[in-house]
Design goal:
Number of strands: 0
Membrane topology: Multi-pass membrane protein
Keywords: Antibiotic resistance, Cell membrane, Membrane, Transmembrane, Transmembrane helix, Transport
Distance between the termini: 33 Å
Radius of gyration: 19 Å
Main location: membrane
Protein name: Transport permease protein
Mean pLDDT: 85
Subcellular location: Cell membrane; Membrane
C-alpha cells in the first residue's frame, strides 16, 4: 500500500475510535448541545418580544427576531462542539494512549486527523439538531436559493474545521482535562459577545470593536445574509480569511506540539 493509502486507513481507524468514544460517553456532547438550544428557547420565548422591539425601533415582532437569532445560534453550536475535542485530546495525552500509538506502525498524523474529522462530523450533526429546533420554534429561510444553502453549509464546515484545529492545539498544550476545558472556554464565550443576539451598532461604542474584530461576527453576518437574503458586504471574504487563518494556525500549532517527544 502507498503511504497515502496507509494514512487514510489509519485516520479512518482513529475516526471510528473517536466516534465510539462519543457514543459511549455522550454526556459531554449532550451538555455542549443543550447550551445553544437553551439559549435559543430563552431568547425566543423569554426575551423575544423585548429584543425584537429594541432592534426594530418599534413594535415587537418575535418572528423577525427568530430569523435574526438563529444564524448566531448555529455558529455558537459550531463553537461549543470543539471544546469537547480539546478535553478528549488532553485525556488521550494524559492517559498514555498517545505514547502507545507512538510505538505502533501507524501514521502519526492519523491520531489528530481522527479527532478533527470526528469533531467536525459531531459539529454538523449538532447544527442539524439545533436547526430542527429552530424550525420548530418558527425559523424560516424562504429567500435562500439552493446555491446560498450550499454556501451556508460550506461556511459551517469550514468554520468547524478551523475551530477544531485550534481546539486540538488547546488540548495538546493542556496538562489535564480540566485545563483543556478552561482553555477552550473562549470558543464558547466569543459568540456571546458577537452580533449573535444584537447588532454591533446597538452596542456601546467602546464595546463595538470587541464584537466586530473577532471571527464569529463576520461568520454570523455571512450566514445570516445567505439564509435570509440580506446584504453580506465584506463579511464573506473576512469570514473566509478568518477560517483559513485559524485552520493553518491550528494545524501547525497542533502538529508541532504533537511531534514533541513526551517528557
Amino acid at each position: 500500500m502507498s503511504s497515502l493509502s496507509l494514512a487514510v486507513r489509519d485516520a479512518s481507524t482513529m475516526l471510528r475510535r473517536n466516534l465510539l468514544h462519543a457514543r459511549r460517553y455522550p454526556s459531554m456532547t449532550l451538555n455542549l448541545l443543550l447550551t445553544p438550544i437553551v439559549l435559543l428557547l430563552l431568547f425566543v420565548y423569554v426575551f423575544g418580544d423585548v429584543m425584537s422591539a429594541g432592534i426594530g425601533h418599534g413594535g415587537a415582532d418575535r418572528s423577525a427576531y427568530i430569523a435574526y437569532l438563529v444564524p448566531g445560534i448555529l455558529l455558537m453550536t459550531i463553537g461549543a462542539t470543539p471544546a469537547g475535542t480539546a478535553v478528549s485530546v488532553s485525556m488521550d495525552m494524559a492517559e498514555g494512549i498517545i505514547a502507545r500509538f507512538r510505538t505502533m506502525a501507524i501514521h502519526r498524523g492519523s491520531v489528530l486527523i481522527g479527532h478533527v474529522v470526528g469533531s467536525v462530523l459531531q459539529s454538523i450533526l449538532s447544527v442539524v439538531l439545533v436547526g430542527a429546533v429552530a424550525v420548530a420554534v418558527g425559523f424560516r429561510s424562504t429567500d435562500a436559493t439552493v446555491l446560498e444553502w450550499l454556501a451556508a453549509f460550506g461556511l459551517l464546515v469550514l468554520f468547524a474545521v478551523a475551530l477544531t484545529w485550534i481546539a486540538v492545539g488547546m488540548g495538546l498544550v493542556s496538562p489535564n482535562a480540566e485545563a483543556a476545558s478552561n482553555n477552550a472556554l473562549p470558543l464558547i464565550i466569543l459568540p456571546l459577545i458577537s452580533s449573535a443576539f444584537v447588532p454591533v451598532d446597538a452596542m456601546p461604542g467602546w464595546f463595538q470593536p470587541i464584537a466586530e474584530y473577532q471571527p464569529f461576527t463576520p461568520a454570523i453576518e455571512t450566514l445570516r445574509g445567505l439564509l435570509l437574503g440580506s446584504e453580506i458586504g465584506d463579511n464573506g471574504w473576512i469570514a473566509i480569511v478568518w477560517c483559513l487563518g485559524l485552520t493553518v494556525l491550528g494545524y501547525f500549532w497542533s502538529a508541532s506540539l504533537f511531534k514533541r517527544d513526551p517528557k
